[in-house]
Amino acid sequence: MITQNVMRKFAAAERTDPRRNTCRRQGLFYDCHNTKYKRVGKENEIRQSMLGWRGCGDRTSLRRAVSILSGASMKKFVLIFFLATAACSFSARTAAGQASKNAETGRWEQAARNVTIMRDDWGIAHVYGKTDADAVFGMIYAQAEDDFNRVETNYINAMGRLAEAEGEGKIYQDLRMKLFIDPEALKKDYAASPEWLKKLMNAWADGLNFYLWKHAEVKPRVIKRFEPWMALSFTEGSIGGDIERINLNQLEAFYGRVAASATCSAEDGDEVEEPRGSNGMAIAPANTVGHHALLLINPHTSFFFRSELQMVSKEGLDVYGAVTWGQFFVYQGFNDRAGWMHTSSGVNAISEYLETVVKKGEKFYYKYGKGERPFEVKEIAVPYKTAEGMTEKKFTVYRTEHGPIVREVDGKWVSIRLMQEPVKALTQSYTRTKAKDYKSFRQTMELHTNSSNNTIFADADGDIAYFHGNFIPRRDTSFDWTKPVDGSNPATEWHGLLSIDETPHLLNPKSGWLYNSNNWPWSAAGASSPKKEDFPAYVETGGESARGLHAIRVLQSKKDFTVGTLIDAAYDSYLTWFEKPIPCLLKAWDDTPAENPSKAKMAEQIGMLRGWDLRWGAASVPTSLAVFWGQDIQKRVGDDAKKAGAYVSDYVCTKVPREVLLQSLAEASDRLAADFGSWKTPWGDINRFQRLTGDIVQPFNDAGPSIPVGFTSAVWGSLASFGARAYAGTKKWYGTSGNSFVAAVEFGEKVRARAVTAGGESGNPASKHFNDEAKRYSTGNLREVYFYRSQLEGHTEREYHPGN
């Protein structure tokens, strides 16, 4: 049958090639490579005919092989035929694949020629491209040069693929992401995106793939090739997105069918939790020496969470600032006319619903109104790495119209609803970098996708502004939205979003300044602040903080701000948390009878605290004693204060017996002596900055080099934050979070700025830019920012095209 089909297929060729027909009848074979005829044995003739057909597409050679089968095995021919066909197909595919690869690498190389990267004397990349897409290509290439591991890890995490790199322990973290991040949905979102945004996503993927092509020695942990749609999996840039608010222990308890208590990880319970957040300040021209608006950009994140760079194009892009590793937009920064700073918000942008579950047979339903609706059921597979190779764990997950089920409470399933608009979010994140004034910046805010942040803004026109949250669902105020609400009640549905004018918002307040330190907005501009009673309760769930009170202290009544004095304010050493507790501690000692042993034991410590000015410093012994006491007393009474709805600093003075206060001080003093040899240890001998490796999770070693840091945790009201603690095998405390990128910006005829990054720009310990900013960081000695190309003259280490 096969032979007949083959013969019919080439019948026409026989009629049109008389020369080859004649040769066939004479037992000759036409060698298509040598263009000549020769006599060969029949079996070899078949083989040679097949090779001739495969090698040069000569179908007559195939017909020739078939025509002499009388002396050869049909089975052998069929085998040879299919081998030849497969070889031809493989050859064709290989050729097509190579052509495609050549076209791709050609595209990359052309993009690289359109980009110039200038590294300044701090290793910071200034990327210049013809188009925005060129600038994106160049800036992501530069990021990969500086720390590809962090670039890849952010997308491994965003797409729920950490377990593929780190094993079984990350399964539920991946499941949490996969409840919201669906690659197929993102591919559709990419396909439906506007062309200008597609070009940027394409350039982003091209830049990363070009880097991997040029650096064969770099071995990705999971993502061997980046696709444009992947950019939509990570569009906001903050340290903890909305999805990460879902409790992993409770998620595992529900989908892993284990007790929640059995999933709790062993955490160090001795440490006060470090608050996440940031500081942003804007000063109006009326309060500055130069009569120009000023902006403080001071994100508090885990160290090395962002890159610092500039990206410029001939299409109006010219922006400088902090870029979350792997993203193609500046997250917090400034252009030549305007700047912005994001701070984590206390807004209630997420709703949880108690779903009443009804089981009918093998199916689950949830009550809604007077009826019942079926759960959407889906299987999610989470691959993970083991010592034997890759395997996977499968989950049957459930979803209502509100969102996925994430835990169970008293027999009811809890669903969660949050903002999911990846295309709009990426659009907003990028377009705000090109906004040059308040009006155009506000237009980007109208997209309402920066869900977890407040924003502080300033521009060269002299405008300063505060935006509270950016995604606030309109809800029925009769419900308590700090708790899960009844999912069966239609009255708990969202009803659109609050507009900017319906949320706490400031534009050019009379105070001449505004700020946010992750506290409530009711003190954002002193007497000019928004009024709490004018807004629904769900617009803010937090309160005032020690940092917030400190910010007011350094901002109010000051009319002579400069870039330098704004930096001074950002590093002001006063610790507001101790304003009430220290006097109460002193009074407790004063009121203690002389015969009490604690009176004499703590006399010297009390004397030192009595003379303390409540200011941190690397050489300060009172800072050490106060911080150790503050930690101890918070551990003792923090939970009680929370239950009472009181700040610990107030609770200490009103509810804690004097004996407890003095016992706590004695415990703190003894701990200092045990760990450092004396309770009279200067703060800088305890509080250290150390960077030994490029690992994402840093190791620490008391025997290794480290630098003293004067500023403390933000818990105590320090605006400059340094979240530090002791680690396994260490006595000294090492910082891992807090001040990460700091910039002070003045918007005059030309923009002027000073900045510093924790450690240095590079993640490579062999680079001189791995730790070259550490001393500046620890002392608040910010360096000049080279915003204009002319400023790079004399400050350029190298200039090159990507891949060169």
Strand order of the largest sheet: 22-20-19-10-9-8-7-4-3-31
Amino- and carboxy-terminal Cα gap: 59 Å
DSSP strand content: 15-25%
The oligomeric state of the chains shown is single chain
**Structure class:** alpha+beta
Q: What helical percentage do the residues reach?
A: 25-40%
| Rg over alpha carbons | 33 Å
Low-confidence stretches: 1-60, 68-72, 262-269
Largest sheet: 10 strands, mixed
- Principal-axis shape equals globular
Helical stretch tally: 24
Strands, count: 31
User: What do the pLDDT scores average to?
Assistant: 90
Question: Could you list some keywords that capture this structure?
Answer:
globular; 804 residues; 24 helices; 31 strands; 21% strand; ten-stranded mixed sheet; disordered N terminus; alpha+beta; 35% helix
Any chance you could write out the topology, listing elements then pairs?
Elements: H1 2-9, H2 11-15, H3 18-25, E1 28-31, E2 36-39, H4 42-56, H5 59-67, H6 74-113, E3 115-120, E4 125-129, H7 132-158, H8 162-166, H9 171-178, H10 183-191, H11 195-214, H12 248-255, E5 277-283, E6 293-302, E7 306-313, E8 318-324, E9 332-335, E10 338-344, E11 351-355, E12 357-360, E13 363-368, E14 371-374, E15 376-386, E16 389-399, E17 405-409, E18 412-417, H13 422-431, H14 438-445, E19 453-459, E20 464-467, E21 485-486, E22 505-507, E23 513-516, H15 546-555, H16 563-570, H17 581-590, H18 597-601, H19 603-610, H20 621-643, H21 648-654, H22 658-676, H23 683-686, E24 687-689, E25 707-708, E26 722-725, E27 733-739, E28 741-747, E29 751-757, H24 774-779, E30 783-784, E31 796-800
Parallel strand pairs: 4-7, 11-21, 24-27
Antiparallel strand pairs: 1-2, 3-4, 3-31, 5-6, 5-23, 6-27, 6-28, 7-8, 8-9, 9-10, 10-19, 11-18, 12-13, 13-14, 15-16, 17-18, 19-20, 20-22, 24-25, 26-27, 28-29, 29-30
